[in-house]
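Per your request, structure below.
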């Protein structure tokens, strides 16, 4: 018997389904994970420094982020309408998303090889010319969450409790809806910071003494994780109130993203006491 998230306190769903429900996303996630090996090797062998850190740090971070995003889409694909998953339009769309993600990581690694900036690079003509195209690819790859969220929201045959289905759909839709304006402003700002940053938080690299637009960007891109987890907890702990709790959690999460975005625009750091 295969257990599902539809059953409270059930074991984890069958992860092997990702290979059949979303083969392109699953294979890409595996390749992104395997790609960490040569990136770590490059970091160990290449002793150059760019803007205070190894030039290979940014490709590494994006491999982790895009790998997690892609495997999450592969997992949620089981809740798409079966006809959609097997249809040609969906296969073409996922192929376009995969191409966009591959283009992003190749671009980042190419910049690392040249020991130059991938983002906000106005000194190298090629990278300056490619930057708007990468923005279009970023919008395309993020749109996968919007499309999947709408399709899951409207699917009557997910087998999930309504509140959990709602939380997955809302998380996916909010990932696109919150990321697009935050990332759009960040890309046009010319820098991650609003002010001059001299101190950074370990691991995340967020500024501890000025506004940092990456905080809101990070939170926005992880709505597809935070909101469904809130939905799962609501279904487990308060099934009678689960739907209302899901809407509240989604609203609070959106408010948090907006708060951190406005905070950064005002030049104020996020949780400065951590620095």
């Amino acid at each position: 018997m295969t257990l599902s998230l539809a059953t409270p306190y059930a074991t984890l769903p069958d992860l092997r389904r990702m290979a059949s429900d979303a083969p392109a996303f699953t294979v890409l996630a595996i390749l992104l994970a395997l790609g960490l090996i040569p990136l770590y090797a490059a970091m160990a062998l290449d002793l150059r420094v760019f803007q205070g850190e190894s030039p290979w740090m940014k490709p590494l971070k994006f491999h982790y982020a895009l790998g997690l995003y892609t495997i999450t889409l592969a997992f949620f694909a089981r809740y798409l309408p079966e006809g959609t998953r097997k249809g040609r339009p969906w296969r073409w769309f996922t192929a376009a998303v995969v191409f966009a993600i591959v283009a992003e990581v190749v671009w980042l690694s190419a910049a690392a090889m040249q020991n130059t900036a991938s983002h906000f690079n106005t000194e190298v003509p090629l990278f300056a010319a490619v930057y708007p195209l990468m923005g279009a690819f970023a919008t395309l790859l993020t749109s996968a969450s919007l499309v999947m969220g709408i399709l899951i929201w409207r699917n009557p045959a997910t087998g999930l409790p309504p509140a959990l289905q709602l939380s997955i759909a809302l998380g996916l839709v909010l990932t696109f809806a919150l990321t697009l304006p935050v990332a759009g402003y960040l890309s046009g700002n010319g820098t991650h910071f609003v002010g001059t940053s001299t101190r950074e938080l370990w691991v995340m690299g967020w500024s501890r003494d000025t506004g940092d637009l990456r905080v809101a960007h990070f939170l926005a891109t992880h709505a597809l994780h935070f909101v469904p987890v809130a939905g799962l907890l609501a279904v487990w702990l308060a099934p009678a109130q689960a739907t209302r709790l899901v809407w509240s959690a989604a609203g609070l999460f959106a408010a948090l993203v907006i708060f951190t975005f406005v905070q950064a625009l005002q030049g104020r750091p996020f949780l400065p006491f951590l620095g």
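The chain has a mean pLDDT of 89.

Regards,
D.
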